[in-house]
């Protein structure tokens, strides 16, 4: 008995010791995640479960569960959270055709994401854009060049999108062999979602052929679920065949859960559940309770918004059973445990990643490397490129030449430094070279802004006087007062305060000055803001804005008279994330083509940095200018003012090199005639200017390829709202575009030998080996993107050809290599109309091999599937 009593006593001590550190089993790190989830789930009240199903998940103090904000972004770098490495926009990364480089980028992105999270939780911060769940990548098919959000995608081809999307997920989520995940990625927007932006909350993508659904819109999502084990899928705003995508049993239950076996979280796009019942949206449910119940039963676990608050009432009204709520909460809790967010950071290896990786020199190099690899050389008449420096007289023109914010794209972070195209060219010049800069025109109008900040007078001297408070209400005396004597760009990125003694968050500032213009005309107050802003002129409120999702541009135009006094005052308050406030004031001058040409008349070459901007194309924007509507485009041509200026330069005898900055295909028909060379630079990130200069001056041999078709004009496009693929993308477009999918030039030349297949007759379900001899026949080393397309000979309704393999390979001068592809059964799948699925279908096929999708660039090799 004495030994039994001693044993019981020891057990009690051990139990007490464990109880002191783990009050509940769900807090016990030694248990499996499944056990911990079940324990916690059954301790929650209905109200607590519902609170966990919203993107702003409130803490449950009685159980020691912290709050968590699910919304974070990492489209091409950690976004909307201040300092970060800014890589090229995804459409630019797609142009690299380089899976290894995309993986390298997102390994860096996930390092920065974890580092920022580690820093934030050390400060007790659990807000938006501070968590571990990254709502990226966007893998919708860029089916129409008018869609503004196409800039977020990996192009128009399902296979390319899938292959690169897998690398994004692998880079973000980290080593799958570890107990804890590094981050969680999110495949979005499931599944038929690619514009228009203006009606996305009410649009019904209907009457879509099953073939188009399974052959075009679904493959990338399936690949990320089955091959990359993506942990989240975001459903889209629009309806699919009459039902909101976030309430579609076909998409979420039949396809995603049942057919593909997805076990992760489905998150609604922000406000998508509210669209179910709003009168100006889908309006297919009567209220939030019925809509929320329908969404949960369809498989949507997390609401980005407030509609799911009604789930408590929905249960009480009998609209949904609590067991259905449990299914979603179980998935949400599992994700939090897998990320280590519910455990002490000391137990999570990823918690050791320090803040010094953020915007590090190593990541800067990756950003430059990706920017270089993304650039596509579209035209190079008389081999004008690369430029020969040494005595070169070069003119730099165009609205994008020194616009750093344009290069950041959308869904972006804030880099420590951005190298503009003008900066990059200046740095590349040799002694004896001469450079002249003249903007020439705006993006879509002739107005050019020139700073007049020196015409502002503060309280005691020139400039703007600023008073700061460490509260948003301006209570008490200011903590400091400073004077700004030049245009400013203030940002709290990297724990940088707006001014000494000013806090990083929850602060406010009042900016005052007197503007005495030296000339009459139109003056412009130009802002870039993340926070809350109000602007007064002579005591009248003229501008008010609040940002929630990163920086936005804002302007106010006013008529002024020379010598007259104008009292300027604006107020700024921190809102969320890093605060950002840029300001300048100046005059808008109308473009003068003759004056601009006179200024560059002695130049040997004009580099015109034109195109468009993320301020014009993107997600559901307020832009309604000629050629643009709510972020979409109604005309794909280069804006008229740029076309006119380039044409005038050509008439004046100037050799023009167009550097086109855009996230979408531009109809460069006129520019193909008027420019000696065309370089597609996309939105190239923080190092874009250096990358462009490296290509222009031959330090880097371009090898990017177009991930989208560059059409000639909108007459080549079907109805924007028709989601069927007939006539769309290189796969179904039978006309002659300006530049084809997969196209891009190099400063060297490549020759293809005859491709060889291991078998001319292939048994269904077995792989086949393809060998492609490739020679670098030029005088420079460079990369070649070897592309393999599949075609079924007797399928009149199928794709003309469709990408099935690619490799980006570096060749030294004169080098020959045999490029080997192992074509798997998955890569040989074709649409089986009788079965209604993609499968290996017997028949006669061709593999088309070459350096682009152009017919003249391809060699065909026939084979048979038995």
TrEMBL record:
<dbReference type="InterPro" id="IPR013783">
    <property type="entry name" value="Ig-like_fold"/>
</dbReference>
<dbReference type="GO" id="GO:0031222">
    <property type="term" value="P:arabinan catabolic process"/>
</dbReference>
<dbReference type="InterPro" id="IPR037524">
    <property type="entry name" value="PA14/GLEYA"/>
</dbReference>
<dbReference type="Pfam" id="PF14310">
    <property type="entry name" value="Fn3-like"/>
</dbReference>
<comment type="similarity">
    <text>Belongs to the glycosyl hydrolase 3 family.</text>
</comment>
<feature type="domain" description="PA14">
    <location>
        <begin position="459"/>
        <end position="601"/>
    </location>
</feature>
<dbReference type="GO" id="GO:0045493">
    <property type="term" value="P:xylan catabolic process"/>
</dbReference>
<keyword id="KW-0732">Signal</keyword>
<dbReference type="Pfam" id="PF01915">
    <property type="entry name" value="Glyco_hydro_3_C"/>
</dbReference>
<protein>
    <submittedName>
        <fullName>Glycoside hydrolase family 3 protein</fullName>
    </submittedName>
</protein>
<dbReference type="GO" id="GO:0009044">
    <property type="term" value="F:xylan 1,4-beta-xylosidase activity"/>
</dbReference>
<dbReference type="InterPro" id="IPR026891">
    <property type="entry name" value="Fn3-like"/>
</dbReference>
<dbReference type="Pfam" id="PF07691">
    <property type="entry name" value="PA14"/>
</dbReference>
<dbReference type="InterPro" id="IPR002772">
    <property type="entry name" value="Glyco_hydro_3_C"/>
</dbReference>
<dbReference type="InterPro" id="IPR044993">
    <property type="entry name" value="BXL"/>
</dbReference>
<feature type="signal peptide">
    <location>
        <begin position="1"/>
        <end position="19"/>
    </location>
</feature>
<dbReference type="GO" id="GO:0046556">
    <property type="term" value="F:alpha-L-arabinofuranosidase activity"/>
</dbReference>
<dbReference type="InterPro" id="IPR036962">
    <property type="entry name" value="Glyco_hydro_3_N_sf"/>
</dbReference>
<dbReference type="Pfam" id="PF00933">
    <property type="entry name" value="Glyco_hydro_3"/>
</dbReference>
<dbReference type="InterPro" id="IPR054850">
    <property type="entry name" value="Xylosidase_Xyl3A"/>
</dbReference>
<dbReference type="InterPro" id="IPR036881">
    <property type="entry name" value="Glyco_hydro_3_C_sf"/>
</dbReference>
<dbReference type="InterPro" id="IPR011658">
    <property type="entry name" value="PA14_dom"/>
</dbReference>
<dbReference type="InterPro" id="IPR001764">
    <property type="entry name" value="Glyco_hydro_3_N"/>
</dbReference>
<dbReference type="InterPro" id="IPR017853">
    <property type="entry name" value="GH"/>
</dbReference>
<keyword id="KW-0378">Hydrolase</keyword>
